[in-house]
Amino acid sequence: MYRYDTIDRTLVNERVAQYRDQLARHLRGELSEDEFRPLRLQNGLYIQRYAPMLRVAIPYGLLSATQLRTLAHIAREYDRGYAHFTTRQNIQYNWPRLEDTADILADLASVEMHAIQTSGNCVRNITADEFAGIAPDELVDPRPLAEIMRQWSTFHPEFAFLPRKFKIAVNGAVEDRAATAFHDIGLTVLRKVGGELGVSVLVGGGMGRTPIIGHVIRDFLPFRHALTYVEAILRVYNRHGRRDNIYKARIKILVKALGPDEFARQVEVEWQHVKDGPGTLTLEELERVSAYFPLPGYESLPDVDATHERLLAEGAAFARWVGRSVRGHRTPGYRAVVLSLKKTGVAPGDATAAQMDRVADWSERFGFDEIRVSHEQNLILSDVRVSDLHTLWEEARVAGLATPNIGLLTDIIACPGGDFCSLANAKSIPIAEAIQRRFDDLDYLHDIGELNINISGCMNSCGHHHAGHIGILGVDKDGEEWYQVSVGGADGSRAGRGRSAIGKVIGPSFKAEAMPDVISTLIDTYLDVREDGERFIDSVERLGHAPFKARVYATETKAVALDA
Amino acid sequence: MPEIIRGRTVMPDDWQVLRPDATAPLAAGELPAGKVIVPLAPWLASAESFVARGDVAVWLAGTDEPGQIAPWLGRLPLVAVDFPRFTDGRGYSIAYLLRSRFGWRGELRAIGDVLPDQLFYMHRVGFDAFAVRPDRSLATALEALHAFSDAYQGSWDQAAPAFRRKARAWPESPGQDSIRLRQQA
Question: Which of A157, A243, A281 sits opposite B155 (nearest CB)?
């Protein structure tokens, strides 16, 4: 993985010093809350419902064992012994003391981590495919470009006060596991026939109040132009994006207002001025950064392991876990393992310090010191030998990290919601838990099959509800918490057969206590109508949302549905 | 007299920023005596006479097109860019364009809601004068100019990104760690 050199280390250390001084001035009363806010936000610090919240960047979701142990240490030392992995591959601490935040940043810097630009109206943490470098369907490893983009966007002097936040995702595989279509900029690294390396550029996607699938404005841009072209996009947005209305300030609104063609034309005009300038990427730089992502020292192994096959045949529980949690790998004899952070009774995406330590240990014993964070809020061990899977499973079960539900209904994506977040209209975690309890029968869960339920506590969509096969959105009505349900969303991954789609609201909202019944009715409807091999999302696509809507509102007599 | 940071020094400043209704034309004769910085629209309306006077400068708002003053850039005493709120970042792009695209080499002054913690970025995009808000410490602002000793990406102050300026060697061959680990296992 990427390692800091003198420049990286200097900048991150200077950032800690800068923040320490800003915090001190704020605590002395020299920086008002209004003035401190944008500064602390660009260091990941929110002031939440009960306490500050610190969001730490995990660039493109990649961690070493040492880094994960440090995250555990921070949870133990400065927080309440746990933390929350987010849909943007970050980690959040819910209970740090404001006074400690500079020390936490210093601890992070000591292991080449930071919280830079994890919030605020700037370029946020760059996300990427969590299976980068190991996925069998990968065309080009997206991590070098993601790291190059991380450096380019870090402290970019011109783009630190954009109209609104700005999210960039990079994918390099056939399957889009980075939800690129829902990003301000979605980059797909690819190779032309003949081998030329380049990117396709999508702009103006996003969730929030106005969910939009982005538009590809460049099918193929030679790799050396990636930074200057993105610079041109940012400059057009910084100058012309709306600043009069926070809800209309994202780039997607500008792209929509101008039309993608006109937006692309303006970018092209701007780009002509910077194209081939000093910002042009060099082959040397690409090679330098790429060298940080070498193939680890894989052993030459057979892809089939006899003992493993026997254990699979003998143990239904093991086989069930393997079926859900173990993913293909491009190196024979190795697999990627998804550790579920979706055990019933635990907030989706939460991990304790002890669990983080265990995962760090496993990454060394069963891999090459590497852990990934997925946007589905699970952890991944990237290089596990097939022959180690059973041992890992046994230990993961003890640690509460082997729930065999990856990709299934109970693998719920959820934001922290009203239990923590001051923006939330409604709670997310208790809704997730109530649904998980309703579907705790494993046979039933596996029979229902692949299904994404995504829950957001407000329109900001941190729980990606628009992209959920079933999306749940917390809304506030006269001070009460209600939940709006949509079906048919898809994040661009294989789970939705590669489609990116925005879920359609089925009708008026429900009270919290009705939600498990509503989900049950949706599932019953699906089980009645499904054809051979059809998953929930396939049935919705084939039949539309009408039959689901009809049955829910016919059945839900208990749910007092208000007008949406 | 008010003070300003110019270059990296605090000095007295006798320029006065005029903030009338930007749509109402302003004749040369209506200007107050002394050095004044006027908004773009009225400045454009009397550009030739203002330029001839020599003590009338122009300030740009976030919505202004910097290219509009390009024909006069050789004869302007200074150009200012306004920050209506410090969170409004349009001025950074305007400054960058004035420097890199339109070749402005004279004083480029940040005015309006200019706070110490903005100065490092402002300096990078091309500002060399900072009319820091009067209720803020100029000493803090001067320090903030030096918040970082290096930068990844190019901008006006340094067009070449780090990868073109430095041989960026790695601290340790990264592949070695994992190979060593595997061998130990």
Answer: A157
